[in-house]
Specification:
The protein is an alpha+beta fold. It is built from three helices and ten strands; from the N terminus they run αββααββββββββ. It has one domain (2-161).
């Protein structure tokens, strides 16, 4: 349902300045591959405006002059504002890449060598440096169960347990 709401927001409010500032972070434990897969969905225009604060170069995710430089900028920004603890252990996000889908950017990460999960702790301040009204919605799947939570700026920590 939240994905439907997000889709509606993405379509309905992009013709005008969208009044909601939201990103959706999906975290999925894949026990077969012993991996945690992370997908981050952000309005492209919001992400570009935010990334401009951290570079002197041009920021264009749609038609990047230097795709490797955009990948590095996106990775560095999100990795510095999204941290995961799995079973109380810090993890490192492995950047996979990003893709554009309509008015949003999907950014993908993974964490390898995770055979099981009992607890996932998230610290997230994505786009808090862009918009005071930013909210980040989480969908976390592990052990056959999905849990969701919404963080409103300045709230930045949420824990999920199974």
């Amino acid at each position: 349902m939240v994905n439907s709401l997000f889709h509606w927001l993405m379509i309905g409010f992009t013709a005008v300045i969208h009044p909601l500032y939201v990103s959706v972070i999906e975290v999925d434990h894949n026990p077969k591959d012993k991996a945690v897969e992370i997908s981050v969905r952000i309005f492209t225009d919001d992400l570009e405006v935010t990334l401009k604060k951290y570079t002197t170069g041009k920021v264009d995710l749609t038609r990047p002059v230097n795709k490797a430089a955009m990948d590095k900028l996106v990775n560095n920004y999100i990795s510095s504002r999204l941290q995961l603890k799995i079973d109380n252990k810090n993890t490192a996000l492995h950047y996979i890449g990003y893709e554009l889908q309509k008015e949003s950017t999907w950014v993908y990460f993974e964490i390898m060598n995770v055979p099981s999960v009992k607890k996932i702790g998230l610290t997230c301040s994505l786009l808090y440096d862009y918009q005071e009204k930013q909210m980040n919605i989480f969908h976390v799947k592990a052990n056959g169960t999905e849990k969701s939570y919404k963080l409103d700026n300045p709230e930045s920590v949420v824990n999920f347990e199974w």
